[in-house]
Amino acid sequence: MSTDNALLTIDEAAERIRMSTRHVRRLIADGQIAYHRLGRAIRLHGADLDAYIASGRIDPIHDEAPAAATAGAFSLTSGSLNGKYTEDRS
Question: Which of 65, 78, 81, 86 is the one with CA 20 to 30 A from 58?
Fold first, then answer.
């Protein structure tokens, strides 16, 4: 995402984040994204779109000790008991 200072129309902003114009208008109405009102026109900064996208980022959770977490664990595998799962303690 580039953080330029160009003002975008709602249509351009929607295209840039690959959402519908209705979704962008809803973000504006709900106060979830910053915008500028120039007379009757609404314009958005590219940097504000980038900030909105960054605010929705969810980082993955990493196990600190994956070997310890799997020690003594068992997995369920498909057994031959009429399609039921059985424990595999290997």
Answer: 65
Output the 3-class SS for 18-83.
CCCHHHHHHHHHCCCCCCEEECCEEEEEHHHHHHHHHHCCCCCCCCCCHHHHHCCCCEEEEEEECC
How does pLDDT run across 9-54, given as a tens digit for each residue? 999 999 999 999 999 999 999 999 999 999 999 999 999 999 999 9
**What CA dihedral angle connects 24, 41, 47 and 62, to 10 degrees?**
-10
| CB of 44 closer than 8 Å to CB of 4 | no
Q: Domains of the chain: which residue ranges?
A: 7-55
